[in-house]
Design brief:
With 414 residues, the protein is an alpha/beta fold. The protein has six helices and 21 strands. It has three domains: 1-9 and 79-125, no CATH class; 134-283, Ribonuclease Inhibitor (Leucine-rich repeat, LRR (right-handed beta-alpha superhelix)), CATH 3.80.10.10; 314-408, no CATH class. Bound molecules: zinc ion (ZN). Pathway: Protein modification; protein ubiquitination.
Protein backbone atom coordinates (compact mmCIF):
# COMPACT_ATOMS: atom_id res chain seq x y z
CA UNK A 1 0.00 0.00 0.00
CA UNK A 2 1.36 3.35 -1.04
CA UNK A 3 0.64 6.98 -0.45
CA UNK A 4 1.90 9.91 -2.46
CA UNK A 5 2.28 13.11 -0.51
CA UNK A 6 4.74 15.60 0.87
CA UNK A 7 6.61 14.52 3.96
CA UNK A 8 8.68 16.21 6.56
CA UNK A 9 10.29 14.17 9.29
CA UNK A 10 10.92 16.32 12.35
CA UNK A 11 13.07 15.18 15.22
CA UNK A 12 11.59 16.05 18.58
CA UNK A 13 15.13 16.62 19.86
CA UNK A 14 15.59 19.63 17.58
CA UNK A 15 14.04 22.26 19.87
CA UNK A 16 16.16 21.00 22.78
CA UNK A 17 19.25 21.52 20.65
CA UNK A 18 18.09 25.00 19.75
CA UNK A 19 17.43 23.98 16.16
CA UNK A 20 14.33 24.34 14.07
CA UNK A 21 12.94 22.25 11.30
CA UNK A 22 12.83 23.63 7.76
CA UNK A 23 9.06 23.75 7.76
CA UNK A 24 8.91 22.38 4.25
CA UNK A 25 7.95 18.94 3.07
CA UNK A 26 9.52 17.00 0.21
CA UNK A 27 7.66 14.89 -2.26
CA UNK A 28 7.70 11.30 -1.17
CA UNK A 29 6.15 7.91 -1.67
CA UNK A 30 5.16 6.22 1.56
CA UNK A 31 4.89 2.46 1.54
CA UNK A 32 3.51 0.20 4.19
CA UNK A 33 5.62 -2.95 4.25
CA UNK A 34 5.36 -6.21 6.11
CA UNK A 35 8.10 -8.74 6.66
CA UNK A 36 7.67 -12.23 8.01
CA UNK A 37 10.51 -14.57 8.88
CA UNK A 38 10.58 -18.14 10.22
CA UNK A 39 12.07 -17.07 13.51
CA UNK A 40 9.43 -14.40 13.94
CA UNK A 41 6.07 -15.68 12.76
CA UNK A 42 4.25 -12.46 13.57
CA UNK A 43 4.78 -9.93 10.85
CA UNK A 44 6.97 -6.91 11.36
CA UNK A 45 5.55 -3.78 9.84
CA UNK A 46 7.47 -0.83 8.49
CA UNK A 47 6.75 2.54 7.09
CA UNK A 48 9.10 3.20 4.21
CA UNK A 49 9.57 6.80 3.12
CA UNK A 50 11.15 7.16 -0.32
CA UNK A 51 12.03 10.41 -1.99
CA UNK A 52 13.45 11.21 -5.39
CA UNK A 53 16.90 11.62 -3.80
CA UNK A 54 16.61 8.53 -1.67
CA UNK A 55 14.66 5.93 -3.61
CA UNK A 56 15.60 3.03 -1.33
CA UNK A 57 14.01 5.06 1.41
CA UNK A 58 14.15 5.24 5.18
CA UNK A 59 12.38 2.58 7.24
CA UNK A 60 10.47 3.17 10.42
CA UNK A 61 9.23 0.31 12.57
CA UNK A 62 5.50 0.61 13.20
CA UNK A 63 4.53 -2.19 15.55
CA UNK A 64 3.68 -0.71 18.96
CA UNK A 65 5.81 2.23 18.02
CA UNK A 66 3.27 4.99 17.46
CA UNK A 67 2.82 7.47 20.23
CA UNK A 68 0.07 9.55 18.67
CA UNK A 69 -1.82 10.36 15.46
CA UNK A 70 -2.73 13.97 14.67
CA UNK A 71 -5.59 13.90 12.21
CA UNK A 72 -7.50 17.14 12.74
CA UNK A 73 -6.77 18.30 9.17
CA UNK A 74 -7.05 14.93 7.47
CA UNK A 75 -9.77 16.30 5.17
CA UNK A 76 -7.27 18.82 3.88
CA UNK A 77 -4.80 16.02 3.16
CA UNK A 78 -2.65 16.67 6.24
CA UNK A 79 -1.78 14.46 9.20
CA UNK A 80 1.11 13.75 11.54
CA UNK A 81 2.30 10.41 12.92
CA UNK A 82 4.37 10.66 16.10
CA UNK A 83 6.74 7.74 16.59
CA UNK A 84 8.22 6.61 19.89
CA UNK A 85 11.52 5.41 18.49
CA UNK A 86 13.21 7.27 16.88
CA UNK A 87 11.50 10.28 18.47
CA UNK A 88 10.25 11.90 15.29
CA UNK A 89 7.06 13.44 13.97
CA UNK A 90 6.26 12.38 10.43
CA UNK A 91 4.26 15.24 8.96
CA UNK A 92 2.27 14.41 5.85
CA UNK A 93 0.72 17.04 3.60
CA UNK A 94 -0.75 17.53 0.14
CA UNK A 95 -2.17 14.02 0.14
CA UNK A 96 -5.43 12.95 -1.39
CA UNK A 97 -7.62 12.96 1.73
CA UNK A 98 -9.39 9.65 1.12
CA UNK A 99 -6.12 7.87 0.30
CA UNK A 100 -4.62 9.42 3.41
CA UNK A 101 -7.47 8.15 5.59
CA UNK A 102 -7.09 4.64 4.17
CA UNK A 103 -3.34 4.70 4.64
CA UNK A 104 -3.57 5.95 8.23
CA UNK A 105 -6.02 3.24 9.22
CA UNK A 106 -3.67 0.62 7.79
CA UNK A 107 -0.78 2.19 9.73
CA UNK A 108 -2.94 2.07 12.85
CA UNK A 109 -3.57 -1.64 12.35
CA UNK A 110 0.11 -2.29 11.78
CA UNK A 111 0.89 -0.46 15.02
CA UNK A 112 -1.49 -2.71 16.92
CA UNK A 113 0.11 -5.76 15.39
CA UNK A 114 -3.02 -6.70 13.49
CA UNK A 115 -2.74 -8.27 10.12
CA UNK A 116 -3.28 -5.68 7.43
CA UNK A 117 -5.79 -6.95 4.93
CA UNK A 118 -4.70 -4.84 2.05
CA UNK A 119 -1.75 -5.75 -0.14
CA UNK A 120 1.41 -4.48 1.48
CA UNK A 121 4.40 -3.41 -0.49
CA UNK A 122 7.71 -5.20 -0.47
CA UNK A 123 10.87 -3.41 0.50
CA UNK A 124 11.99 -2.48 -2.99
CA UNK A 125 13.20 0.90 -4.18
CA UNK A 126 10.52 3.18 -5.60
CA UNK A 127 10.69 3.80 -9.34
CA UNK A 128 11.31 7.31 -10.64
CA UNK A 129 8.06 7.10 -12.61
CA UNK A 130 6.11 7.01 -9.37
CA UNK A 131 7.21 10.53 -8.64
CA UNK A 132 5.37 11.68 -11.75
CA UNK A 133 2.28 11.63 -9.60
CA UNK A 134 3.58 14.87 -8.17
CA UNK A 135 3.13 16.79 -11.37
CA UNK A 136 1.63 20.16 -10.62
CA UNK A 137 0.99 21.29 -14.18
CA UNK A 138 -0.62 19.52 -17.10
CA UNK A 139 -1.48 21.05 -20.46
CA UNK A 140 -3.53 19.10 -23.00
CA UNK A 141 -4.44 20.83 -26.23
CA UNK A 142 -5.79 18.05 -28.40
CA UNK A 143 -8.40 15.32 -28.14
CA UNK A 144 -5.91 12.51 -28.72
CA UNK A 145 -3.85 13.46 -25.66
CA UNK A 146 -6.84 13.52 -23.35
CA UNK A 147 -6.46 10.82 -20.65
CA UNK A 148 -9.37 8.43 -20.83
CA UNK A 149 -8.18 5.46 -18.81
CA UNK A 150 -5.56 7.14 -16.62
CA UNK A 151 -6.47 9.51 -13.83
CA UNK A 152 -5.16 13.05 -13.57
CA UNK A 153 -2.31 13.29 -11.02
CA UNK A 154 -4.02 14.40 -7.81
CA UNK A 155 -1.30 16.96 -7.10
CA UNK A 156 -2.15 19.10 -10.14
CA UNK A 157 -2.37 22.80 -9.44
CA UNK A 158 -2.71 23.90 -13.04
CA UNK A 159 -4.74 21.93 -15.55
CA UNK A 160 -5.49 22.94 -19.11
CA UNK A 161 -7.60 20.82 -21.42
CA UNK A 162 -8.38 22.87 -24.53
CA UNK A 163 -9.62 21.74 -27.95
CA UNK A 164 -10.63 18.39 -26.46
CA UNK A 165 -14.27 18.54 -27.54
CA UNK A 166 -15.50 18.27 -23.95
CA UNK A 167 -19.28 18.67 -23.65
CA UNK A 168 -19.21 18.69 -19.87
CA UNK A 169 -16.69 19.12 -17.07
CA UNK A 170 -14.93 15.83 -16.35
CA UNK A 171 -15.85 14.74 -12.81
CA UNK A 172 -12.26 13.50 -12.31
CA UNK A 173 -11.11 17.12 -12.45
CA UNK A 174 -13.34 17.99 -9.52
CA UNK A 175 -11.35 15.63 -7.27
CA UNK A 176 -8.17 17.65 -7.85
CA UNK A 177 -8.36 19.56 -4.60
CA UNK A 178 -5.08 21.41 -5.17
CA UNK A 179 -6.20 23.02 -8.42
CA UNK A 180 -5.54 26.74 -8.61
CA UNK A 181 -5.89 27.21 -12.31
CA UNK A 182 -8.36 25.38 -14.53
CA UNK A 183 -8.43 26.13 -18.24
CA UNK A 184 -11.26 24.49 -20.17
CA UNK A 185 -11.22 26.95 -23.06
CA UNK A 186 -12.19 25.92 -26.61
CA UNK A 187 -14.54 23.06 -25.77
CA UNK A 188 -18.31 22.56 -26.09
CA UNK A 189 -19.31 22.80 -22.42
CA UNK A 190 -22.95 23.82 -21.97
CA UNK A 191 -23.34 23.74 -18.23
CA UNK A 192 -21.06 23.92 -15.21
CA UNK A 193 -21.54 21.52 -12.31
CA UNK A 194 -22.05 23.20 -8.93
CA UNK A 195 -19.26 20.99 -7.58
CA UNK A 196 -16.65 23.21 -9.26
CA UNK A 197 -17.33 25.28 -6.16
CA UNK A 198 -15.73 22.52 -4.09
CA UNK A 199 -12.31 23.31 -5.54
CA UNK A 200 -11.40 25.47 -2.59
CA UNK A 201 -8.13 26.81 -4.00
CA UNK A 202 -9.39 27.63 -7.50
CA UNK A 203 -8.18 31.11 -8.42
CA UNK A 204 -8.39 31.09 -12.19
CA UNK A 205 -11.15 29.62 -14.31
CA UNK A 206 -10.99 29.90 -18.08
CA UNK A 207 -14.10 28.92 -20.02
CA UNK A 208 -13.40 30.97 -23.12
CA UNK A 209 -15.08 29.63 -26.27
CA UNK A 210 -17.65 27.16 -24.95
CA UNK A 211 -21.45 26.87 -25.17
CA UNK A 212 -22.37 28.19 -21.72
CA UNK A 213 -25.74 29.89 -21.36
CA UNK A 214 -25.51 30.74 -17.68
CA UNK A 215 -23.39 30.87 -14.56
CA UNK A 216 -25.38 29.32 -11.74
CA UNK A 217 -26.38 30.88 -8.42
CA UNK A 218 -24.94 27.82 -6.63
CA UNK A 219 -21.50 28.58 -8.08
CA UNK A 220 -21.79 32.23 -7.08
CA UNK A 221 -22.48 31.15 -3.51
CA UNK A 222 -19.78 28.47 -3.32
CA UNK A 223 -16.25 28.68 -1.90
CA UNK A 224 -15.31 30.41 -5.16
CA UNK A 225 -16.39 33.55 -3.31
CA UNK A 226 -13.15 33.33 -1.35
CA UNK A 227 -10.78 32.05 -4.01
CA UNK A 228 -11.76 33.02 -7.56
CA UNK A 229 -9.73 35.94 -8.92
CA UNK A 230 -9.85 35.50 -12.67
CA UNK A 231 -12.84 34.36 -14.69
CA UNK A 232 -12.94 34.19 -18.46
CA UNK A 233 -16.42 33.58 -19.87
CA UNK A 234 -15.84 35.17 -23.25
CA UNK A 235 -17.21 33.58 -26.45
CA UNK A 236 -20.19 31.87 -24.84
CA UNK A 237 -23.94 32.37 -25.07
CA UNK A 238 -24.59 34.09 -21.77
CA UNK A 239 -27.49 36.57 -21.75
CA UNK A 240 -27.29 37.61 -18.12
CA UNK A 241 -25.52 36.78 -14.87
CA UNK A 242 -27.44 36.30 -11.61
CA UNK A 243 -27.45 39.09 -9.04
CA UNK A 244 -25.52 36.75 -6.71
CA UNK A 245 -22.61 36.88 -9.15
CA UNK A 246 -21.54 40.05 -7.37
CA UNK A 247 -20.80 37.97 -4.26
CA UNK A 248 -17.66 36.66 -5.98
CA UNK A 249 -15.84 39.38 -4.11
CA UNK A 250 -12.28 38.35 -4.85
CA UNK A 251 -12.70 38.76 -8.62
CA UNK A 252 -10.10 41.07 -10.10
CA UNK A 253 -10.30 40.04 -13.72
CA UNK A 254 -13.55 39.35 -15.58
CA UNK A 255 -13.91 38.70 -19.29
CA UNK A 256 -17.35 38.56 -20.85
CA UNK A 257 -16.57 39.49 -24.46
CA UNK A 258 -18.58 38.01 -27.31
CA UNK A 259 -21.63 36.89 -25.36
CA UNK A 260 -25.27 37.91 -25.64
CA UNK A 261 -25.42 39.92 -22.45
CA UNK A 262 -28.42 42.23 -22.35
CA UNK A 263 -27.59 43.53 -18.88
CA UNK A 264 -24.89 43.51 -16.23
CA UNK A 265 -25.86 42.18 -12.80
CA UNK A 266 -27.43 45.20 -11.08
CA UNK A 267 -25.14 45.00 -8.01
CA UNK A 268 -21.94 45.00 -10.06
CA UNK A 269 -20.59 47.82 -7.89
CA UNK A 270 -20.13 45.26 -5.12
CA UNK A 271 -17.19 43.73 -7.00
CA UNK A 272 -14.82 46.00 -5.13
CA UNK A 273 -11.66 44.18 -6.17
CA UNK A 274 -12.47 44.16 -9.86
CA UNK A 275 -9.72 45.85 -11.90
CA UNK A 276 -10.04 44.42 -15.42
CA UNK A 277 -13.45 44.19 -17.03
CA UNK A 278 -14.15 43.49 -20.65
CA UNK A 279 -17.56 42.89 -22.15
CA UNK A 280 -16.99 43.85 -25.76
CA UNK A 281 -19.45 42.80 -28.47
CA UNK A 282 -22.47 42.11 -26.27
CA UNK A 283 -25.98 43.54 -26.42
CA UNK A 284 -25.90 45.94 -23.49
CA UNK A 285 -28.42 48.80 -24.01
CA UNK A 286 -27.21 50.69 -20.92
CA UNK A 287 -25.22 50.26 -17.70
CA UNK A 288 -26.76 49.67 -14.25
CA UNK A 289 -26.60 52.55 -11.78
CA UNK A 290 -24.13 50.68 -9.55
CA UNK A 291 -21.61 50.67 -12.36
CA UNK A 292 -20.51 54.06 -11.01
CA UNK A 293 -19.08 52.38 -7.90
CA UNK A 294 -16.49 50.37 -9.82
CA UNK A 295 -12.86 51.33 -9.66
CA UNK A 296 -11.12 49.75 -12.63
CA UNK A 297 -7.77 49.85 -14.31
CA UNK A 298 -9.05 48.61 -17.64
CA UNK A 299 -12.49 48.65 -19.23
CA UNK A 300 -13.56 47.46 -22.65
CA UNK A 301 -17.20 47.83 -23.71
CA UNK A 302 -16.58 48.13 -27.42
CA UNK A 303 -19.29 47.10 -29.84
CA UNK A 304 -22.36 47.06 -27.57
CA UNK A 305 -25.80 48.19 -28.63
CA UNK A 306 -25.93 51.19 -26.31
CA UNK A 307 -29.14 53.21 -26.59
CA UNK A 308 -29.49 56.98 -26.55
CA UNK A 309 -30.41 58.20 -23.05
CA UNK A 310 -34.15 58.76 -22.77
CA UNK A 311 -35.20 62.35 -22.34
CA UNK A 312 -38.18 61.62 -20.13
CA UNK A 313 -37.79 59.78 -16.85
CA UNK A 314 -39.93 56.81 -15.92
CA UNK A 315 -41.97 57.78 -12.86
CA UNK A 316 -43.16 54.97 -10.61
CA UNK A 317 -43.69 56.79 -7.35
CA UNK A 318 -46.21 55.48 -4.83
CA UNK A 319 -48.08 57.85 -2.57
CA UNK A 320 -48.31 56.83 0.16
CA UNK A 321 -45.63 54.13 0.13
CA UNK A 322 -46.95 50.59 0.53
CA UNK A 323 -46.16 48.75 3.73
CA UNK A 324 -43.84 46.46 1.73
CA UNK A 325 -41.95 49.39 0.25
CA UNK A 326 -41.53 51.16 3.61
CA UNK A 327 -40.39 48.04 5.43
CA UNK A 328 -38.00 47.07 2.62
CA UNK A 329 -36.46 50.53 2.66
CA UNK A 330 -36.06 50.36 6.45
CA UNK A 331 -34.46 46.90 6.39
CA UNK A 332 -31.97 47.91 3.73
CA UNK A 333 -31.19 51.36 5.10
CA UNK A 334 -30.50 49.99 8.58
CA UNK A 335 -28.64 46.98 7.17
CA UNK A 336 -30.86 44.57 9.09
CA UNK A 337 -29.79 41.06 8.14
CA UNK A 338 -32.39 39.00 6.31
CA UNK A 339 -32.59 35.53 4.83
CA UNK A 340 -35.06 32.93 3.63
CA UNK A 341 -35.11 31.41 7.14
CA UNK A 342 -36.77 34.61 8.44
CA UNK A 343 -38.85 35.98 5.56
CA UNK A 344 -40.28 34.42 2.38
CA UNK A 345 -37.74 33.64 -0.30
CA UNK A 346 -39.33 35.93 -2.91
CA UNK A 347 -38.98 38.88 -0.52
CA UNK A 348 -35.28 38.12 -0.17
CA UNK A 349 -35.00 38.16 -3.94
CA UNK A 350 -36.75 41.54 -4.08
CA UNK A 351 -34.43 42.94 -1.41
CA UNK A 352 -31.38 41.56 -3.23
CA UNK A 353 -32.15 43.59 -6.33
CA UNK A 354 -33.35 46.77 -4.61
CA UNK A 355 -32.31 49.92 -6.41
CA UNK A 356 -29.94 52.43 -4.87
CA UNK A 357 -30.95 56.08 -5.07
CA UNK A 358 -28.32 58.74 -5.67
CA UNK A 359 -28.91 59.75 -2.03
CA UNK A 360 -27.66 56.33 -0.87
CA UNK A 361 -31.08 55.09 0.26
CA UNK A 362 -32.87 52.19 -1.34
CA UNK A 363 -36.14 51.64 -3.19
CA UNK A 364 -38.02 48.58 -4.43
CA UNK A 365 -41.05 49.53 -6.48
CA UNK A 366 -41.41 53.24 -5.87
CA UNK A 367 -38.86 55.25 -7.78
CA UNK A 368 -38.07 57.54 -10.67
CA UNK A 369 -35.79 56.06 -13.29
CA UNK A 370 -33.71 58.25 -15.55
CA UNK A 371 -30.91 57.60 -17.99
CA UNK A 372 -27.86 59.75 -18.40
CA UNK A 373 -24.54 59.32 -20.06
CA UNK A 374 -21.39 58.74 -18.09
CA UNK A 375 -17.82 59.11 -19.16
CA UNK A 376 -16.24 55.72 -18.60
CA UNK A 377 -13.00 57.37 -17.56
CA UNK A 378 -14.70 58.15 -14.25
CA UNK A 379 -14.53 54.45 -13.33
CA UNK A 380 -11.51 53.21 -15.25
CA UNK A 381 -7.97 54.30 -15.97
CA UNK A 382 -7.73 52.80 -19.42
CA UNK A 383 -10.90 52.77 -21.49
CA UNK A 384 -11.26 51.12 -24.86
CA UNK A 385 -13.44 53.27 -27.13
CA UNK A 386 -17.05 52.12 -27.05
CA UNK A 387 -17.61 52.62 -30.77
CA UNK A 388 -15.84 53.49 -33.97
CA UNK A 389 -16.75 57.14 -33.42
CA UNK A 390 -14.14 57.43 -30.70
CA UNK A 391 -16.52 57.86 -27.77
CA UNK A 392 -15.84 56.89 -24.19
CA UNK A 393 -19.35 57.65 -22.98
CA UNK A 394 -22.09 55.15 -22.27
CA UNK A 395 -25.69 55.43 -21.08
CA UNK A 396 -26.27 54.62 -17.42
CA UNK A 397 -29.48 54.23 -15.44
CA UNK A 398 -30.09 56.28 -12.31
CA UNK A 399 -32.76 55.73 -9.69
CA UNK A 400 -34.34 58.26 -7.37
CA UNK A 401 -36.27 57.26 -4.29
CA UNK A 402 -38.36 60.44 -4.19
CA UNK A 403 -39.32 63.48 -6.18
CA UNK A 404 -37.00 65.50 -3.94
CA UNK A 405 -33.97 63.39 -4.87
CA UNK A 406 -34.89 63.67 -8.54
CA UNK A 407 -35.24 67.45 -8.46
CA UNK A 408 -31.98 67.88 -6.54
CA UNK A 409 -30.10 65.76 -9.07
CA UNK A 410 -31.84 67.00 -12.17
CA UNK A 411 -28.61 68.73 -13.23
CA UNK A 412 -27.16 65.28 -13.60
CA UNK A 413 -29.81 64.33 -16.09
CA UNK A 414 -29.21 67.18 -18.46
ZN1 LIG B 1 -33.05 59.30 -2.62
Amino acid sequence: MKLHCEVEVISRHLPALGLRNRGKGVRAVLSLCQQTSRSQPSARAFLLISTLKDKRGTRYELRENIEQFFTKFVDEGKATVRLKEPPVDICLSKANSSSLKGFLSAVRLAHRGCKVDIPVSTLTPVKTSEFENFKTKMVITSKKDYPLSKNFPYSLEHLQTSYCGLVRVDMRMLCLKNLRKLDLSHNHIKKLPATIGDLIHLQELNLNDNHLESFSVALCQSTLQKSLRTLDLSKNKIKALPVQFCQLQELTNLKLDDNEMIQFPCKIGQLINLRFLSAARNKLPFLPSEFRNLSLEYLDLFGNTFEQPKVLPVIKLQAPLTLLESSARTILYNRIPYGSHIIPFHLCQDLDIAKTCVCGRFCLNSFIQGTTTMNLHSVAHTVVLVDNMGGTEAPIVSYFCSLGCYVNSSDMLK
